[in-house]
Task: structure prediction
Amino acid sequence: MSFDAIFVLIVLVTASVLLVTEFLRADLVALLVLAALGASRVLTPQETLSGFSRSAVITILAIFILTAGLQKTGVTSHLGKQLVRFGGSSGTGMLIVLMAAAAFLSLFMNNIAAGAVLLPVAVGVAREHKLSPSKLMMPLAFGTLLGGMATLLTTSNILASSILRDNNLPPFALLTFAPIGIPAVLVGIAYMVLVGRRLLPRRAPTDWTRLTQAGREHLSDIYELRERWFEAHVPDASQLVGKTLPETGLGQELGINVIAVIHNGKARLAPPPSTVLHAGDLLYLQARQEQLETLRARGLEVTARTPPAELGGENIRLFEIVPSPRATIIGKTLREIQFRDKYGLSVVAIWRAGHPRRVELGSMPLQGGDALLVLGTTQRAQILQNEPDFIVLSSAIEQEIRHHKAKWAAVIMVAALVASASGVVQIAEAMLIGALAMVLVGALTMDEAYAAIDWRVIFLIAGMLPLGLALTKTGAAAYIGNGIVTMLGGFGPLVVLASILVVTILLTQVMGGQAAIVILAPIAIAAAAQLHSNGYTFVLGAALASSMAFLTPLGHPINMLVMGPGGYKVTDYLRVGAVLTLLLFGLIMVLLPVLYGI
Result:
C-alpha cells in the first residue's frame, strides 16, 4: 500500500473509534476527517470540499424542507391519525396499522420526522384503548426503519447512490429499493404480530403500563407527584420576605423545585429568579419529606400536600415531552439550558429507566430516552412544540397549523415524487424545486425552511463523503476488498456479499447507517470488482443492511425517540430485533441476486 492509503486507513479507524465511543459528536468527527484529508493533500481542495456540492446533500436538505411543509400544513398529522383509526381497539390491529402507517410515511419523509408525527398519536391511542405503550412504541420505530428500506429517500440510501455515481456506476432510482423493501415491510409486520409483540416487555405496575389505567388528567398519579408536592405559606415574620428565589436557597442549595408562587390570589407558574417573596404568598413546592423541617427552619409554614390540578385555571395542564433524537440539550441540565426562564414552564418530574424522578431535577443531565412531565399553560406548550430539541407527546396541544395550505403541500410533494420516479427530472433537482415551491405557496416561511434543516446531518454527510472518495482514490478500499476476497472468495460471491451485509449491520448498530454506508460502499464496490461481480448489487445490499438498526437504541435516532415513552431497556431492542434482523438478512440474500443479479 502507498503512504496515502495507509494514512486514509488510519483516519478511517480513528473516525470509527470516535463514532462508536461517541467521544466526540458525529458531525464534528466528520469535519475533522474532512480537514485531515485536505491538510494531508490526500485529496485536492476541490475533492475535499466536494461533499457540500453533492446531489446527495441537496436531496437530503430538500427532503427536510418538504417534510416540514407537510407538517406545518397538517398533512402528515392528519394522514397519520386517519391511518391509525383503521386499527380499531385491539392491540394486534393497532400494531399492524401503526407499523404500516410508519412505513408509509417513511417512504417520502425522514424516518425521525415520521416517528415524531406518529408518536403523540400512538401515546394517545395507548391511553384511549388501555394498551401498554411498551407494546406500540418499538413497533412504531421499527415500522419507520422498514419503510426506509423501501425507498431511495433515506439518508443512507441517498449516500450509497452518490458513491455509485462517484465510481462510474449507475445510481439508484427512486423505486430501486421497492422490490425488496416492500416484502421487508410485510415480513417485519408479520414478525411483530406473530412473534415480536410477545417479546416486548411487560413492565411492573410502577412503570409505563400505568398509563393504561389513567387518562391525561391523572398524569400526576402516574408520576406519583403527590408524594413530593407541598403547599407552603410565607408568614409576615418569615426571614424569606423580600428575598428573590435564588436568595432563599431553595433551588440550587436544597434542590427544591418551586413550581408556582401565588401572590394576591394570582398564580405565577415557573417563577423566574427575579421573583420576590412577599408576606402572605403561597408556594407550591416539590420536596422530600425529610426536607420539611429545613423549610420550616427557613421561615415557611408547610401546610398541606397539593396535587398539580389544584393550581387552578382551565388553561393550565400537565403534558409530557421527550428530547428529540439529535437534541442539543442531551447531556445538559435543565438549569444549564435555562428551561424555566426560556419557556415559562416547570418540569415537575423526569421518567428515567422505568421510574419517576421528582426532586433535584434542575441538576440532572438530560439523557436520550428521558420523558419529562411539564406543567404550564397550553400557549407555552405550543411554543415548546415548535422547538427542534423537544417533541410534545400530548396530542391535545395543537400548534398553529396552516390547514388552508394543506392541498398545496400535498400536491407539491406528490409532484416531486412523480417527477423523480419518472426520470423527467433528476431526484436532487425535483426535490429542490419542490422545497422552493413549499415556500412560494406559503406552506412555510423561508426562516422555517432554514430551521427545518438538520444541519448536523448535512455536515456529517458532507464531511464523510470525501472519506469514501479517499478510500477509492488511494486504493485503500481495493486493499480491504482484496483482503475480503482472499479470505472468502473461494466460497463464491454470495458469501462475500453476505459478509459485507453482516459487517454493515454490525457497524450500523453502533455508529448509525449513514457512517456505515460511507465506509462499506467503496469496499463493496472493490470486492465486487475483484470477483468480477455486480458492484451495483453489492452496494444495494449494503444500503439495505444500513437500515437494519434493530439491535440497539444507538443504531438509529428513532430508537432513542421511543425509548422513554416505551419504557424500554437496551436489552429489549436486542431481544426483539435479533430475529427480525435474521429474517430480513435471509430475505435480502434470497431476493437480491434473483432481482438484480450478482
